[in-house]
Specification:
single chain
Length: 257
């Protein structure tokens, strides 16, 4: 018998999920469900979505004038790791670490002051100035506990050191200790700073400590000390009648009386 040509075997249909297949045949389909195009993007109206949600841009917050966006505040103290001696030499126009530290303190740049002071060797001629200004950094940055430990560990014959030591104790609430330091600040030499300014500061802060003690103990003796303290301040600033301390002395004298 003549041989017959082989009959091609049809490929097995791709299985379709029962639910989809049934739905398609209910609609009159023949072979398989059509390819459904993806849905059009839906605008974000707060409803849940399967699409990737991208974070919204944060609007700029304007300042009181409504002109420029408010910039985040920078750190008050720079990290010393970002500083170099050459940077400080250029900024302050000197290679003298004492002058740099004094200038940095006046500008409130405590990290720069501390960095400059670290350049001064402990066995050099500027060691006393280094210790004085290190205490100044602690005082102005309100590190009172650290400053007290520093004061106890250093015996320095310097008026400015004693002035700062007095302020540390005064701001810590120990006016008795503060008064002792203010009195010795009037008699010691100073390695840095202006002698006249140190003296006026010591007299002014002495009057403040007397006033603090008088509030705690309003005795006739303390009243006399307060009066004397403010009289001395008034005399010290008599050549500058418009100075804030002179005006304060006048006010305090009239209020104590």
């Amino acid at each position: 018998a003549a041989s017959q040509a082989p009959v091609p075997i049809a490929a097995a249909p791709t299985p379709v999920p029962a639910a989809a297949d049934s739905a398609w045949h209910n609609l009159g389909g023949q072979d398989k469900p059509p390819v459904v195009p993806p849905p059009a993007p839906v605008q974000d109206n707060g409803a849940p979505s399967h699409e990737t949600i991208r974070p919204k841009a944060v609007p700029h917050v304007k300042n009181r004038t409504g002109n420029e966006p408010i910039k985040p505040k920078q750190a008050a103290v720079e990290k010393s790791a970002l500083l170099t001696p050459e940077m400080l030499y250029t900024k302050y126009g000197t290679r003298d670490p004492v002058q740099i530290a004094d200038g940095a303190l006046a500008a409130g740049s405590f990290a720069q002051a501390a960095f400059a002071l670290d350049l001064i060797p402990d066995n050099g001629p500027d060691y006393t100035s280094k210790v004085v200004l290190q205490l100044a950094v602690m005082l102005q940055s309100s590190q009172f506990a650290k400053a007290k430990a520093f004061i106890a560990a250093h015996q320095v014959n310097d008026a400015r050191f004693d002035l700062y030591a007095g302020r540390v104790n005064q701001l810590s609430g120990d006016d008795a200790a503060a008064l002792n330091y203010f009195q010795t600040a009037l008699t010691k030499p100073n390695s840095t700073g202006n002698r006249g300014d140190i003296r006026k500061d010591a007299l002014y802060y002495t009057a403040l400590s007397y006033a603090n003690q008088y509030k705690k103990n309003p005795s006739p003796e303390m009243r006399a000390m307060v009066m004397q303290g403010w009289r001395v301040v008034k005399n010290a600033y008599s050549g500058m009648p418009g100075h804030a301390r002179y005006l304060q002395a006048v006010t305090e004298l009239s209020s104590v009386q």
